[in-house]
Amino acid sequence: MKKGNSMFKKTCSLLAISVLTFSLSVPTFAAKDNSPELKGTWSRGEVTQDPIATFKGYKTDEAGNKTVLDVSPFTGNNIISSATAKGMKGANGEVGTYNYWDGVYYYEYIPNSYVMDYGFKDDYHYNVGHTQAYNGTGGTAKLSYSQASAVTSQWSVTAQVSSTAEIKANYLQKLGLTFGGSYTSSNTTTSTSTILYQIDVSPGKTGYIDAALPGAYSNGTASYKEYLYFSATGTFTSTGNTVTNSNEGGWSPLANSSTSVLNFTSGEY
User: Fold this and answer.
1) Does the first or last residue of the chain, that is N or C, have fewer Cβ atoms within 10 Å of its Cβ?
2) Interior CA angle at 94 toward 89 and 100, to 5°?
3) Which run of H or E residues covers position 226?
4) pLDDT tens digits for range 72-111
């Protein structure tokens, strides 16, 4: 009996050790994050407005002589684009010789003459939204960002780029080839109720999230042929001169309306 009792005690001891070992090997799971959600105040945010480079150029005659121009010769109404002088239509939309002026110079972009001298891309250039909220809960709280409203981002470029189809195409092409993707004169980011970004806000602090659309910049050189209009013949006659502007270009937004391309900055104060 003593021997039997000894075996029984050993068996019980082994069982106890097994149970203890099992209980210690059970994994522990992190508690679910029950941080309260803050209701952010969404706004469009500051509209991105970039300065436009001033004219910096010169005129070259047929002999190759260059003359620095202190003032831009481009008025907005003396640009020839797609074989049509800009801004020269009559009240009823017709184009007539009375809309052109004797002795006034007109300028036509030389195809593919645009050269990017320098440029850069900014992933956070165009503001498309802002949200913020104060955390008065006494503990850490969540602040989320959704694109509550559709937002349009506009380019800021020199007058020649914005009004001349040929140089506009060259300028946008240079941005795409240099920085990848496609760029445009105007891009509208779509709205969505989906949470795109989220941060933790400390108690007693105001948290904020800013959303931005990428943009790209190009400063380049473009050349234009110079013409004079003569009403007697109803024709534009080349002067043989070429005008070159070395401050041509500006900023343009990425051509993508999806919120997936947005970038975010955040913080608290």
Assistant:
1) N
2) 45
3) strand 206-230
4) 998 877 888 776 765 444 333 333 333 455 568 899 999 9
| C-alpha radius of gyration, the chain, whole number | 34
Please check whether residue 210 is in contact with residue 197, taking contact to mean a CB–CB distance below 8 angstroms.
no
Q: Which of 23-27, 45-49, 63-67 has the highest mean pLDDT?
A: 63-67
* Cα separations in angstroms, 195 against 143, 180, 207, 260: 10, 27, 16, 11
pTM for the full model? 0.79
Res 235 pLDDT > 60: yes
* pLDDT at residue 236, rounded to an integer: 83
**H or E stretch covering 78:** none
Residues 201 and 140 sit within 8 Å (Cβ to Cβ): yes
CA 51 to chain centre: 15
**For 261, how many CA atoms within 13 A lie in the half-sphere containing its CB?**
22
DSSP state of 261: G
Phi, then psi, of 170 in degrees rounded to 5: -65, -45
Please report which helix (H) or strand (E) contains residue 117, including its range: strand 115-134
178 token code pair: 């240099």
Structure tokens at 210: 């800013």
Cα(81)–Cα(240) distance, rounded to whole angstroms? 18
Distance of CA 225 to the CA centre of its chain: 32
**What does the DSSP assignment read for 131-150?**
EEEE--SSS-EEEEE---S-
Q: Are strands 141-145 and 197-201 parallel, antiparallel or unpaired?
A: antiparallel
If residue 170 lies in a helix (H) or strand (E), which one and from where to where? helix 165-179
Residue identified by tokens 């602090």 is 205
